[in-house]
Design brief:
Oligomer: single chain
Shape: globular
Order of helices and strands: HHEEHEHEEHEE
CATH class: Alpha Beta
Number of strands: 7
Mean pLDDT: 85
Strand order of the largest sheet: 3-7-6
Structural class: alpha+beta
Low-confidence stretches: 4-25
Distance between the termini: 54 Å
CATH architecture: 3-Layer(bab) Sandwich
Number of helices: 5
Helix content: 40-55%
Radius of gyration: 20 Å
Length: 126
């Protein structure tokens, strides 16, 4: 009886400990998405009617790149973490490089970095 109780407790502990971990396939999908080659060159996609196509904000650039890899963009969390920097205009010339590298090229000069949470890119300050 004592061994059975110990076995059940150990099994429950192992089960609970594993609940917060990402599944290997989920991790692999994110790695694959970050390795996907992307492009973003002039003229940039228009974020609103009347927007200029010769420049783009950091957040809209990230959104355009994320869309190419089937990742989302968490607008609210990015705004909360990075603030007004998300609205800075940039003029990236990205042509056929992995998303991981493209994000570094865009975000590093703005003192930003990113996380991926629930399939969405979230910007944050370095």
């Amino acid at each position: 009886m004592k061994n059975t109780v110990i076995t059940i407790i150990m099994a429950a502990t192992i089960l609970i400990a594993g609940c917060g971990k990402k599944s290997p396939s989920s991790s692999r999908a994110t790695d694959d998405q970050l390795a996907t080659k992307v492009a973003l060159t002039k003229p940039y996609p228009l974020s609103y009617e009347g927007a200029e196509s010769d420049r783009i904000t950091v957040q809209y650039a990230v959104m355009a790149l994320a869309k190419q890899t089937k990742l989302g963009y968490d607008w609210d969390a990015s705004q909360a973490n990075a603030g007004e920097v998300c609205k800075n205009y940039i003029t990236p010339e990205i042509d056929g490089i992995p998303l991981r590298e493209a994000l570094t090229n865009i975000l590093e000069p703005e003192a930003l970095t990113y996380d991926i949470r629930d399939g969405k890119i979230v910007l944050k300050k370095n």
